[in-house]
TrEMBL record:
Protein name, per record: HPLN3 protein
Protein family (similarity comment): Belongs to the HAPLN family.
Gene name tied to this protein: Hapln3
Disulphide linkage map: 214-235, 313-334
Localisation: Secreted, Extracellular space, Extracellular matrix
One GO cellular component, as annotated: perineuronal net
InterPro entries: C-type_lectin-like/link_sf, CTDL_fold, Hyaluronan_bind_Proteoglycan, Ig-like_dom, Ig-like_dom_sf, Ig-like_fold, Ig_sub, Ig_V-set
Record key words, sorted: Disulfide bond, Extracellular matrix, Hyaluronic acid, Immunoglobulin domain, Repeat, Secreted, Signal
Main location: secreted
Statement: the UniProt record of this protein carries the keyword Ubl conjugation: no
A family per Pfam: Xlink
Length: 360
């Protein structure tokens, strides 16, 4: 074959490779770059070495977090040199998603959503080769991988830190019913519920903690997947092992599914209000406002259930028009025998209590 044709065939073949196990994908879990050998450059008789945290750094929504990164020369070159430090946020495949910050000495510039929130940690006597990044007021979409890059003249070394937000994944269907959302609508409904579309790692973590859901939903990378703990015929078949079932990437405008949303710990509190005769949805919203709060969103209720242990056997309105209640300790007349957030759906009539959210 001509050389050009061979190269084209090789490129096409490589483009269709995916790790495949038991009929579904374990995306990115098998392809962690942890075994990648440390790359070093030699100059002036020394080598530049960059080291970031090997373990994930955990944080939560609204917190301040430091992503550790340091550099050194082997052997040491003595007085601190004028170097450039660059931080970037990466996609799961380690390609660059966005610039975060660039620093030279004490001068730095943060970019995009990180303006006003990202800066360099100041070096102390014990660590004059400091390159750590500080992010304040952490947001849900900050979750992910970050590259710490140190540039000294023509020499360029880097390492990667994994920032993970402590949170909860919950499946979401709109009032119209199952499989009504394209990708962009799924992004919006998660935002409306105080959340974002979950990524694969977050869904995998939720599955490992017990999430079992037979309806397929969008993830942040445009794939459609669903977590199964107990294999059964309607959910991919009984012959498949437990795991994450995948439809792979879907058309973001044409195809319609549910959504898997991700919410983290809250800055404020969720509390319950009720009247003897209950409330309509509009009365419920007004009651929250009268209490100096707003009607809670679905993601806020899930977060309060998971992180604060909110346990209430009384059903209450939420901002999307659904009626739900959170159960930490299952008991008689409070639904199934497992903990969880119960749902009455989206009743057009009826009078219930309300869950409100108030910032601290």
């Amino acid at each position: 074959l001509p050389l050009l044709l061979k190269a084209t065939l090789l490129h096409l073949a490589s483009g269709f490779y995916r790790p495949f196990y038991n009929g579904f994908y374990y995306n990115h879990i098998m392809n962690d770059n942890g075994d990648e050998q440390e790359k070093v450059d030699y100059f002036s008789g020394s080598k530049l070495v960059v080291e970031a945290s090997k373990d994930p750094v955990y944080s939560y929504n609204g917190a301040n977090v430091t992503l550790p990164c340091h550099y050194r020369y082997e052997p040491d070159l003595g007085p601190k040199r004028k170097i450039r430090i660059k931080w970037s946020k990466l996609r799961d495949d380690y390609t660059k998603e966005q610039d975060v910050m660039v620093a030279i000495g004490k001068t730095y510039v943060a970019f995009g959503d990180f303006k006003g929130r990202a800066h360099m940690r100041q070096a102390g006597e014990a660590s004059r080769h400091e390159a750590s990044l500080v992010i304040s007021d952490v947001r849900l979409k900050d979750d992910g991988k970050y590259r710490c890059e140190v540039i000294d003249g023509l020499e360029d070394e880097s390492d990667v830190v994994d920032l993970r937000l402590q949170g909860i994944v919950f499946p979401y269907q709109p009032p119209r019913g199952q499989y009504r959302l394209n990708f962009h609508e799924a992004e919006q409904v998660c935002q409306d519920q105080g959340a974002i579309l979950a990524n694969f790692n977050q869904l995998f973590q939720a599955w490992s903690e017990g999430l079992d859901w037979c309806n397929a939903g969008w993830l942040a990378d445009g794939t459609v997947q669903y977590p199964i703990r107990l294999p059964r015929k309607p959910c991919g078949g009984v012959h498949l092992a437990p795991g994450i079932r995948s439809y792979g990437p879907r058309h973001r405008h044409l195809h319609r599914f549910d959504a898997f949303c991700f919410s983290s710990a809250l800055k404020g509190e969720v509390f319950y209000l009720d009247r003897l005769a209950g409330m309509t949805l509009e009365e419920a919203k007004q009651s929250c406002q009268d209490a100096g709060a707003e009607i809670a969103r679905v993601g806020q209720l899930y977060s309060a259930w998971k992180f604060v242990g909110l346990d209430r056997c009384n059903a209450g309105w939420l901002a999307d028009g659904s009626v739900r209640y959170p159960i930490v300790t299952p008991r008689a007349n409070c639904g199934p025998a497992e903990p969880g957030v119960r749902s009455f759906g989206f009743p057009s009539k009826g009078r219930f209590g309300v869950f409100c959210y108030r910032e601290r």
